[in-house]
Each structure stands twice: as C-alpha cells, then as structure tokens.
Amino acid sequence: MxxxxxxxxxxxxxxxxxxxxVKYSVDGLKEPMDEIKxxxxxxxxxxxxxxDRVKSEVQRMKASVEGTKEVLGEVKETIT
Length: 80
What we know:
Elements: H1 4-79
C-alpha cells in the first residue's frame, strides 16, 4: 500500500481534471445556446411583426366592410 496522502492527492488531482473536462464541455455549449436564444428571439420578433401586420389588415378590412355597408344602405334608400 502506498502513501495515503499521495493517494489522496492523486484522487484530488483526478477530480480536478474531471471538473476541468466538465467545465470545458459546458463552455463549449455556451456559444450554441446563445445562438439558439438569438434565433428564438428573432423568430418571436418576426411572429409579432407578422401578427401586428395581420391585425392591421383585419382592421382595414373591417373598415372597408363598414364603408361598403354604408354605401349599400344609401343605395337601398335611393332605390326604395
């Protein structure tokens, strides 16, 4: 059996190396995760912009329908 302190030091060094490997892996994931977050935000912004455009178009169409109803009402009054 070897020196227990040396064995403990070896074990601690091994743990440090393992932790360094985990840290390296986590650091390697940071950039792709940041890219994913940016892509998600861009997608959300695009959806909101399109949604706002659709809402605006629906409001315009509603106003057009109301205008058409008014004109038809006037035509109906003129005919009768």
